[in-house]
Amino acid sequence: MRHSNKSKNAEPSQRQRRVGEQIRHIISEVLHRGHFDSELLFNKANTVSVSEVVPSPDLKHARAYVISFNGENLDTLIDELNEHAHVFQKEIAKGTNLKFTPRVKFFTDNSFDEAQHIENLLRGVHIPDDAEE
Question: Which residues pair with 5 in a beta bridge?
């Protein structure tokens, strides 16, 4: 019996990666311009970066991961980004040549924090000098 490549843990296809990178650039550009009716987004848009966008296999949805330059908590900003997702949606529709415009949902990117935690754990490992036993 053959297993399908469509499992949830499968690597993204080349097309998903290409579309994700295209969407990441569009979102970053919109954030940089800062044309929002939200005071929070207007003030904080330049303190965050979109680290990665991962589209679903059917390209109808995409998860945009955001990091903060100054290390502040992003919960409120993520909520605001999701509330104003229609602004990004319109720009994605203009900037891509896709049959469907992916619906973007924003999330905090914790990968850098996790990497730092692992590095701290590895630095704390003590290997005894006389490990001949």
Answer: none
DSSP-derived letter for residue 37 is: S
- Identify the helix (H) or strand (E) that includes residue 108: strand 103-108
Every domain of the chain and the residues it spans: 14-124
Q: Report pLDDT digits (tens) over 17-52.
A: 999 999 999 999 999 888 788 888 888 777 889 999
CATH (residue range 14-124): 3.30.300.20
Q: How far apart are CA 102 and CA 125, in angstroms?
A: 44
Helix, strand, coil share of the chain (percent; to 5) = 45, 15, 35
pLDDT > 90: percent of the chain: 47
Rounded Cα–Cα distance for residues 94 and 58 (Å)? 19
Contact (CB, 8 A) for 26 and 91? yes
